[in-house]
Amino acid sequence: MKFSAKKGADELRAIATDVRSGGKENRESAAARIYFDSYMPQTTRQEDNCVNAALNYGYSIMRGAVARSLTSYGFLCAIGIHHKNELNSFNLADDFMETLRPVVDLWTARNIEEGQSFTIKDRTALVSLPHSEML
Questions:
Q1: 133 Cα distance to chain centroid
Q2: How far is CA 44 from each of CA 33, 34, 36, 84, 93, rounded to the nearest angstrom?
Q3: How many Å apart are CA 91 and CA 35, to the nearest integer?
Q4: Torsion angle (degrees, nearest 10) of CA 53, 54, 56, 58
Q5: CA distance 86 to 7
Q6: Are residues 27 and 93 in the same domain?
Q7: Of 90, 113, 114, 117, which sits 20 to 30 A from 123 (CA to CA)?
Q8: CA 126 – CA 57 distance, rounded (Å)
Q9: Rounded to whole angstroms, how far apart are CA atoms 9 and 12?
């Protein structure tokens, strides 16, 4: 799947150059809207469907793997860098997990079609995703 040739790719690249640490311009939100409209056009994140089930499950798997790894090295996951919600015990894991979301997105785009069931086979593949070789 060639993501760079998809509708919105050039606009995403342009927005990426404008994103600043702690930026108040809401560029990340604008990019997310373009990203999901271009790469997951069959769904919105609010719908109850198999695409969102796969995304949510995959994100949870990645978040758990990151949290386990961080705590095994003695990090306190409640203390985040950008995520700072006092009710969230996994702020730091959420900071690190952000870079892994596209891995789940790509797997979902390649393996889940709207209208299908979210099966045990899909769940098993997503659980194995953190152990996949990634370039």
A1: 17
A2: 10, 12, 8, 26, 25
A3: 24
A4: 160
A5: 38
A6: no
A7: 90
A8: 8
A9: 5
pLDDT > 60? residue 3: no
For the cut 60, the answer to whether the pLDDT of residue 10 exceeds it is yes
Residue 86 has pLDDT above 60, yes or no: yes
Task: Based on the fold, state whether residues 27 and 51 are members of the same structural domain.
Answer: no
What's the domain range around 90? 44-135
pLDDT average, residue stretch 11-29: 77
Tell me the HSE value of 29 on the side-chain side, using a 13 A CA sphere: 5
Q: Quote the tokens at residue 87.
A: 């009710």
Q: Is 48 in the same domain as 33?
A: no
The more confident residue out of 56 and 28 is 56
CB atoms within 10 A of CB 58: 26
The kind and range of the H/E element at 97 are helix 91-97
DSSP state of 71: H
Determine the pLDDT at residue 1: 45
- If you compute the radius of gyration of the chain from its CA atoms, what whole number of angstroms results? 16
